[in-house]
């Protein structure tokens, strides 16, 4: 048996993301022990049964004591308060990271309380509209991209190595730059998907059998959980609102072309979008 890289990794929040990470670490033999820490013992027991943890607990001190790495896998608004709760029980060697899809507010808030400068922000850009421990995927992190943002340079390097061992490509980035980028390619697309579903609620309710695969493809992520995504929209409100303004301008532009039968302009607009979309597959 190959020697494990980490003696103990603690994952706080054993849902889809946390559970999938725990299972990957154990399957890859990257961690000798994975401790699942949470508030619901029945769900934690499921995580252990599914091979996502070697040990589970509700006790914060027991959960984080002696850990090489602590990963906070909670909704974005709970991450700073959880850091404050665990900090008194952390060993000096312990590095703490998170999985939040908003970085600037999390990094800046935690910095106010981080006495040992042990926190490094992370955003593994993987997931699913399906959540919870029952939907964990052992290979969820394979080939994905993780942005590492903020924190002590040496510790950030160690967290980058951690995600690489889990199978991810790592990109270092400033927290504010991360939030601007991710708003455009993740947060705002989710908002558009929610909006598209809601604007067509009448059609969905009255003509469900007439809905084709194009609409289903365009709205897949609208099945995402409201608790998580409402927090994300608020936590990254500045960048999301900027994207709404830009989208409004684009809608008015294409509306004008359609209203005045600007066939050439409409074709060019669609062509540019097609070429850009195709380039993402290369």
What does the radius of gyration come to? 21 Å
Overall pLDDT: 95
CATH superfamily of the largest domain: NAD(P)-binding Rossmann-like Domain
Using the coordinates above, name the CATH class of the largest domain: Alpha Beta
Oligomer: single chain
What is the straight-line distance between the termini? 38 Å
Strand content: 5-15%
* Major β-sheet strand ordering: 3-2-1-4-5-6-7-8
Number of discrete domains: 2
Low-confidence stretches: none
What about the largest sheet? Answer: 8 strands, mixed
Helical stretch tally: 12
Q: Report helical residue fraction.
A: 40-55%
Overall geometric form:
elongated
Determine the CATH topology of the largest domain.
Answer: Rossmann fold
The SSE order reads EHEHEHEHEHEEHEHHHHHH
Number of extended strands: 8
What is the architecture of the largest domain at the second tier of CATH? 3-Layer(aba) Sandwich
Class by helix and strand content?
alpha/beta
Write the layout of secondary structure elements.
Blueprint: E1 6-12, H1 16-27, E2 31-37, H2 41-49, E3 55-57, H3 60-64, E4 69-72, H4 79-86, E5 95-98, H5 104-111, E6 119-124, E7 145-149, H6 153-165, E8 169-172, H7 175-199, H8 201-206, H9 213-218, H10 226-235, H11 237-259, H12 263-279
Parallel strand pairs: 1-2, 1-4, 2-3, 4-5, 5-6, 7-8
Antiparallel strand pairs: 6-7
Helix pairs in contact: 4-5, 7-11
């Amino acid at each position: 048996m190959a020697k494990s890289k980490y003696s103990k990794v603690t994952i706080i929040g054993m849902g889809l993301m946390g559970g999938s990470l725990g299972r990957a670490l154990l399957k890859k033999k990257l961690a000798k022990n994975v401790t699942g820490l949470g508030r619901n013992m029945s769900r934690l027991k499921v995580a252990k049964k599914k091979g996502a943890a070697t040990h589970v607990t509700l006790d914060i001190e027991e959960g984080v004591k002696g850990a090489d790495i602590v990963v906070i896998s909670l909704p974005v608004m709970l991450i700073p308060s959880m850091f404050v709760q665990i900090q008194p029980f952390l060993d000096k060697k312990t590095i703490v990271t998170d999985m939040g899809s908003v970085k600037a507010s999390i990094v800046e808030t935690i910095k106010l309380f981080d006495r040992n400068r042990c926190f490094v922000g992370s955003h593994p850009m993987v997931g699913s509209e399906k959540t919870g421990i029952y939907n964990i995927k052992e290979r969820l992190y394979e080939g994905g991209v993780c942005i590492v943002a903020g924190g002590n340079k040496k510790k950030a390097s160690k967290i980058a190595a951690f995600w690489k061992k889990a199978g991810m490509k790592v990109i270092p980035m400033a927290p504010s730059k991360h939030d601007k980028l991710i708003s455009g390619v993740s947060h705002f697309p989710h908002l558009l998907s929610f909006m598209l579903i809601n604007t067509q609620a009448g059609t969905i309710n009255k003509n469900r059998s007439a809905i084709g695969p194009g609409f289903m493809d365009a709205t897949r992520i609208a099945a995402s959980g409201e608790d998580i995504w409402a927090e994300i929209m608020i936590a990254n409100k500045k960048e999301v609102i900027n994207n709404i303004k830009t989208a409004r301008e684009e809608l008015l532009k294409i509306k004008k072309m359609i209203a005045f039968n600007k066939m050439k302009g409409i074709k060019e607009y669609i062509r540019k979008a097609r070429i850009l979309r195709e380039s993402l597959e290369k």
